[in-house]
């Protein structure tokens, strides 16, 4: 059985038209709603989509044998940097509601991972209301956290800063994992949102490991997307600093979990070797950025299960851990 | 025959989902397109819409006897203040293309009024490329100008400033009128976009009349939306200043045109008396803000033709001028 | 009997030379005072003034039959945006003292309306000390409030914001009305102070009516200057929003009072029709902006009593209410 | 004969009321004028003034035996940091006109020194128009330059910067001296305008002497007010730097002139010794800051001629140079 | 023979005391110089250094068998973000002079790589004067470029921006390679300078490959430090974007060179596989960050030659290319 | 016996290389230390130094007969405006430690005056920890205070502001004097750090004397460096303001102490006359800015004892007070 911990919801255009409306009237029309019918929701899952290489979301999952996918909001649509903050609240809740309805429409296929209304105009403690609603009322199994709610326009506090503690507290109290995954990226940053994901993950790993977070929250479960940014590849650079503190950096790395959302086999191998198979979770972000066929191999670029299958040194137990049991234990599925 | 000079396009959710996507990826996915089928376009015109009091766009026009409506982009969706500027270009062009397709789908019912890509990151001279495309290639009959492309976040140059001259030049060269109509309004402004319309129209009228614009562009044809903001009602306040220059302010007011988009009869009467019937054009913004039935009268609030019909002192010639011939002459329809 | 609720004090040049001195030494010379003799004060009331069309303040009142005028500081001189705040305190108190002395010099002719030291560097609660002094010690009958103490340079909190509650509290406690009237207007705003009055009144009316102010302060008495800015003329635009809340916007408008300081008869008629005669107060701002003779009619532009007299449908009781009793009741004169 | 090179005009309150009006309407009332009668002008010179210790301007001059005084605008009223720039133009010209009228009203007693419209929103080259008008049309004998037109709110270019070259060029072309004298001082500066004078003079002397100004403008004549700020007293500090360049700092100091506007004898003696009697000019700033009687001595504090008389080592020729001939030569009186 | 393309100069404390002096007097003491004797220079190379694990610079090279090392300034000392710009000029030149003297003191052991005076207050064209001096007069074989001269305080133009073209032009004209290597990193950035290196290299690779730089400068030779940041590990993420343009991202990666300065074998292997052995250069940054012994292996962490030796699949020709001939050809050594 | 209250420590280059390192790694390398051996410390005192005119620190003292010198950090190196604040803490403590070691290495020759870690990012109360350490643990006899920790980049609170009260409290509690002495000066200020000293001392004297500081801290002992900036020379300017408060400014001046660090005899004489010999302390800042021989006299410019010796009217008791006993009493030596 394949459990994919890194999927994003596929929603119909009404959800994003709703967002566009919020950004246009800035609240003057009231909260309203996206007004999406079940038919339109189903169509968004079942109909072929040019953005997904001409296949539907469910067809992608079926072809890859993904039995269960954890789905969160499309990160780049999160609009965390928009103002006033209540717009972020409204759109986040509307999106989480769509995720919940999708989970109900396709029972067994999906579980929800909550987006948080991360406006920097509000205190992180207020973000956790939506987290509680999603976990306690809607049955979500985790949350997604954007380490840069400014979306590239200013420097936020690093993840090691006490600013984030209200979120860690709520996660520990609810006992659910959180997926580190940034959102949009606006000028004056030099990178697209997609490269920003990598930069933010690098900062997240180092920011967390050089802080007191895991001392203060020993039960906190953090999953870093896209194989941990640059860190596994660059981990040697952090070895001397750790040694000076009497630690080994590779041990520190194992305080976190990482998904396998990397599109080359050698990178996945490096990740598995660097942090250990037991700290890795199968994740594909499928369908999404990688949903294009490589003309040389004929494979979908995001067919990460094939890349893992190609790794010869993994034994069956390790494969099962990677594809299923690590996720099952961490998310208590 | 009724010609309504102030309508906005009704487009399907795909157009605004396209906009939401641009604001999310900030160009990283390329320009792409909204991907709207003719069926979805037609549905947006023919299907009942809760935002329009449960009627369709075309049903509204039919009920009010509007034979021809000039349609421009929905102003509050214009996103002029978004960055980088090419996003504004892309969305404006996509919207104008939708207007063009709507005009073709319902021949005789609509004529296009062009939105302009008014990013303050670009020179106004560059905005006129889209104006030329719409008029010369798509057959549009006029343009809409937002006097506050900052959308409430900063003070733009007043309409009397030379900043705007490239736009006036292009309008004169193409010999088409322009409708003054602001767009969104963001914090820190204290008003909603809808009240911002009124404030900006007030500033526009006074800014233009106290400038050299009509000396420098004697053939420029400017229509101010919503009955000219506060100015006709407050016009006495400007009389002394004009007298000091040997002018009468009421004469100056007649350098502009005004639409009748006011929802009370006394206001329309005041407007007609203040600026003259020959300077007024029938405009409804229908369906839109006023598309709600007044429970006391049973009328749609935006049934402006009924308010005009109620004005007893208008003779037939004036009514015809107001409902049809003023627009026909100004827009050369 | 005519009671004019909207007059401003005419003071000799020493008062404004005092202000110029404060702005020059920024407090280094201490508070000092304007040093105005009674003779100079009387001259400012009795002597012909080129700014007033060559007539004196008292001659204007006599000619218009104004028996009692409520006088406040000249708003455009208020210097609320100057720094440090104590300069605003000093000049406001000096001006209120001049008003008080004028009231004493011409007994029966004038009553004081207090200016407030509205520096945004200080808390509104501190502004009310001067309000109390004027009402409790100097016998003033009301206050004037500037909704934009930044004078066009930044966006202040809207009048519905809790920021203003200390002022509402003091007004209710003292049981005196307040006249909404903005002051100066500096760059980067696009409008002169005179047009700024209108813009701010529009914002004030809508800001107040869309807030909880009258729920929280049911006894608050607010008079909006210059006929309520754009709102009576544009009131239809706000009808749908009110209907959605189960209200009628025209009822809401009647939570406020309005003065008749409009210089065209049709505007005054529209105002009376829109808000009701019982919500209107005779106000002229005389002598001031409108103190110029219209060469066509030979009338002073600010001869608002003549405009009202021209309105045929007003009956005697309504005229008396408008000219006298509404003011008498509201201000308890 | 005593020639005092450092006096400021005493004008009636109308001039400053005019300034207050400009700052209130920010140009909306047009340029207008202060409207000062000759009687009011004369009164400002002849009437006892509490700001001047209860004596009139002319009485002060008579008592001190000042036969001729060069008068410039009151510096702290200059409002150079106000916006828009045309307000500075208007007020500067109005003040210079008052100076001109005063010179004509009291022939032989006064000669004019021009204020410049030093708005930092305009180019220094434009300031020189008023300089030319004053010298060529009104017969003024010099100008006053404020090295800090920002009046303490920002750092201006130092006097050695090329920014100031258009002023130096015009001064050389017109062949008139310039008096360095700053104007107002606003927060966030820590000093009053009066202490700001001293700080700016210190910066001016060092800024000029460390620059190429006197190489590029060998004929430029600059007089530094108030005895050169701190520099003569602190001159030893600048000796090593000059020596490293093969210069003596005391020689450099003699590129400038200094007035004697210091209120203690030892300070004047130090100045004379440091820069040489031939580089000093009798200046009193009388009546002004120092127009108060010292209770111990009974003298006016600004009776600088008495302090000079007390200096025993000055011979007659030196006294004459100081009191008269240095000024006569420099200003060509 | 081993050629190490990534070394930094070891200079005595006088060089950095010189820098501290510049930052203290901000130029008031003039340019001066560090005043370093040959003895002190030699000591900095030969004496054991606690920052280098208790060994000397030369001992490190000898132990690793590095026959020739290319040395550039210590990047984190570059002070590019300091002001005024001439301080950056002075310190950069002083440092390059020290590098030149070190090359002369130890003939055959070192070749110089020039630091550039990259103040954002100056135009990049002015930076190339120092580049020309180093290459043409001092015999340097390349340059080092900091893609973030703001050192973390603001967003600089991306490396694909035309801003950088004057540098590319000079490099092509001189026909020398450039090493991309950022410098310091100040608040508000969330990362240390060392992690900033990685983030900036990631941005550099993607910024360059998505731009027209290699079309406009086909002969430009750019070496990215530290194995290219995150990109080789994350390269799959960029495959779909390249495919949409008809390119393969791995081909694009081969437009650049990369050094092997990674401290784990798997990372070096991944790099070699991703970009090809012919695009990799032996680089150690030795002695430096990695000059600490790993207590498990007993090896110096920066003994990169040992890591490479451990890679079994490299044949002799490839090893020679990596250790020597690639560098020899690229730098024409 | 000569006691010099105004000396600064001469430290080897390692101290400033340590500072340069802190500014380069911004704390990433940890606090570390300058690693200065006793030999290097001694060399910095005993070896001829080109910055000191080719003599050593101790040779200067010997030649001038200075038996005891109070030494503080080199002010221009203080880096108070650098960020983050802990860098200022570290460097200040390192410098004070060096001062302490120098005092121990040359017993009887030196006593310490503490630098304070005056980052504006921290509260002044936190600065006093280092003050207490120096006085209570290291035996320092006073402290040095920089009135402008922003080093010319912004306006700090004036010395009369309550902001500084925690420092005054600690000084009174420890019963040690404080020397007012500013540090560096960065753009946008127009002056070098050396001229900034004078400007800041002027502001300090006036700021203190116009405040409540000496009412609130009657036992506070403040010494102003460099003869009090401009104030003794310009003191007449402040006489009228004091008289208006019933005070004499010269009495007020005597609330402070002043050192004689002025390089011309007339200036020292003026100082002694203005404030009284009992308020003056022998101070030379030797070796330093003035350590250059005057080619005319052959004297060192900073041979202030010779200037004092040249003052004929001083009697022996006054000389002893000036050279020794005033300092001995104030600092309790």
UniProtKB/TrEMBL annotation, chains A, B, C, D, E, F:
Q: Using the record for this protein, list the coiled-coil segments as residue ranges, or answer none.
A: none
Q: What is its EC number?
A: 4.2.1.83
Q: Name one Pfam family in it.
A: Amidohydro_2
Task: Read off the Gene3D superfamilies from this record.
Answer: Metal-dependent hydrolases
> Quick check: keyword Lyase in the entry?
yes
**SUPFAM superfamilies named in the record:** Metallo-dependent hydrolases
Name the UniProt record assigns to this protein:
4-oxalmesaconate hydratase
Species source reads Plantactinospora soyae
């Amino acid at each position: 059985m394949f459990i994919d911990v890194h999927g994003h919801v596929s929603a119909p255009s009404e959800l994003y038209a709703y967002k566009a409306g919020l950004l246009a009237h800035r609240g003057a029309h009231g909260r309203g709603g996206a007004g999406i019918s079940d038919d339109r929701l189903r169509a968004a899952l079942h109909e072929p989509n040019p953005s997904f290489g001409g296949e539907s979301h469910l067809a992608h999952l079926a072809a890859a044998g993904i039995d269960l996918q954890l789905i969160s909001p499309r990160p780049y649509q999160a609009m965390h940097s928009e103002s006033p903050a209540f717009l972020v609240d409204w759109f986040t809740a509307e999106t989480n509601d769509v995720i919940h309805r999708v989970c109900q429409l396709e029972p067994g296929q999906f579980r929800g991972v909550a987006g948080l209304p991360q406006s920097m105009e509000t205190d992180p403690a207020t973000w956790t209301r939506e987290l509680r609603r999603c976990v306690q009322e809607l049955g979500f199994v985790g949350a997604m956290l954007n380490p840069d709610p400014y979306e590239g326009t200013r420097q936020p506090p690093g993840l090691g800063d006490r600013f984030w503690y209200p979120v860690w507290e709520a996660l520990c109290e609810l006992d659910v994992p959180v997926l580190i995954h940034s959102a949009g990226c606006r000028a004056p940053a030099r990178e697209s949102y997609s490269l920003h994901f990598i930069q933010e993950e690098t900062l997240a790993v180092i920011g967390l490991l050089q802080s007191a977070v895991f001392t203060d929250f020993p039960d906190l479960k953090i999953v870093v997307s896209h194989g941990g940014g640059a860190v596994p590849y660059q981990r040697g650079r952090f070895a001397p600093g750790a040694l000076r503190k009497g630690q080994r950096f590779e041990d520190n790395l194992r305080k976190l979990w990482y998904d396998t959302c990397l599109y080359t086999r050698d990178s996945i191998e490096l990740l598995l070797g660097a942090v250990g198979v037991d700290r890795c979770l199968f994740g594909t972000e499928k369908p999404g950025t990688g949903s294009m066929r490589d003309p040389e191999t004929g494979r979908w670029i995001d067919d990460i299960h094939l890349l893992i299958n190609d790794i010869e040194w993994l034994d069956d137990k390790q494969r099962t851990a990677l594809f299923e049991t690590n996720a099952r234990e961490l998310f208590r599925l």
